[in-house]
Amino acid sequence: GTEIYTTMFISQDTQGYAVNKKFSVDWYWGEFSFAYVGVGEFFIWEQVPTDQIIEYGTAFDYDVNASATSGIDQYWVNDTINFQIDGNGIITNATFLSIGEYWLEIGVNDTFGSNITTSIKITVNDTTPPTWDQVPTDQIIEHGIVFSYDVNASDFSGVDQFWVNDTINFQIDDNGIIINATSLSGGSYWLEIKVYDPYGNNISTTIKITVQLFPFKVELSHPGDIIYFEGDIENEILWQITCSNISNPHYYIYKNDSLIRDGSWQLGDSILVNVIMWV
Q1: Which CATH architecture group holds 131-212?
Q2: Which one of the record's GO molecular function terms can you name (predicted)?
Q3: I need a labelling partner for 194 at 20 to 30 A (CA). Which of 1, 10, 53, 114 fits?
């Protein structure tokens, strides 16, 4: 019979195969018979590459593998600015990857010049919350003292915002410094503190701020009795006042249970009144 040789080439099927097969067509007694006489080359991904997600700031490392009867000649990627691939199919980032999506075409060539390719999406996300440089702790202050407390946090994407839940009594600035927004009464204040990064991730903690009221002490000098003669001048009463643990002192003077004078005074001042004014 007559032998006719032909070659059939399928570049890539739906499963990622590239197949080369050589057949002979043999004319024999008026019928065709097909005999496989050549070497068939199977070219396939061992695991079809899939989309990848990595955390911002971490190194990208992804292993792809293909098999070919003739042997693998070369792996390659189309984006060589951001990625690189070695002879074993290991893909790594070639530069620092910013947050976003990267479409990457991956190809493999065999020694016969055939190739298979696929494209994957690599997503770089930031899902990591900030961390405290020093974990905030409970605070104690004395009544009348200005409250000031500095909290600090770090994040790979940077710190976007500091926040406190009690904005009636406290406020916090962009540097994490907490101060009282009003005069604090004695007692305990529970304050929640949060720090956000630009992508909404946050870390929080709650501290107790205790404002202590210490017992105050006032000592008032007692002037001696005065005998007043009509027409006398310079009959004055002088009070010397000493005190501790008191803020915003105020005094009141009564005559026969009637208030005749009051006012504020500074620590260390004396109060002087002229008797003639009240006779």
Answers
A1: Sandwich (2.60)
A2: calcium ion binding
A3: 53
